[in-house]
Amino acid sequence: MAVDEHDATTELHEDEPELEVEGEPEHEEALDPEVAARRRAALAQIRKFGDPVLRTRARPVDLFDEALREEVARMGALMDDAFGVGLAATQVGVVHRLLVYKASPGAPLAALVNPEVEWRGDEQEIMEEGCLSLPAVHVDVERAIHVRVRARDEYGTEILVEATGLEARVIQHEIDHLDGVLILDRTSREERKQAMAALREALDQV
Ligand code: NI
Questions:
Q1: Is 174 tagged catalytic?
Q2: Domain boundaries, the chain
Q3: Model pTM?
Q4: Top CATH class, 6-204
């Protein structure tokens, strides 16, 4: 199906504002102290680089029960408190193929269970991404601009998501997490080197 009418191109938008796939939006000192404390508490519950669960391939979910819906609600709350726009179950130590995200700041929470990228457009875009599991890391990542993802929601209902731009990027980032893949694996050797130095410093401060 010819969804993509453009040629396969790789575009680099250097002048565009930094994209925060998973968070670190504002400077903490500008935050209300209560909000900042909640954010720190949420971040403390999110697994960081070095934790083997982040390199684990998550297992498909086969039980769409109340416990799963509680997990979705818990992840959604953590994501909001941490100012993330996406969160994968592996990031909270649960090896379920489950991710939550918000397509835009005011959008309702979406949960994708057992997501599969069914179609990926040829058009790619490079943008800077961060990750709640990789403090201080911001690296350029090339991803498809358009994807179609088949999944189930937290009630087991089959859903088809046609995503573009930031939504497509967030979904791809979170599906990577479910496969044990991090943005460090998707950037240039040079950027990875710099990111690792920043990451070690940030993790030492925790
Ligand atoms: Ni991430």
A1: yes
A2: 6-204
A3: 0.86
A4: alpha beta
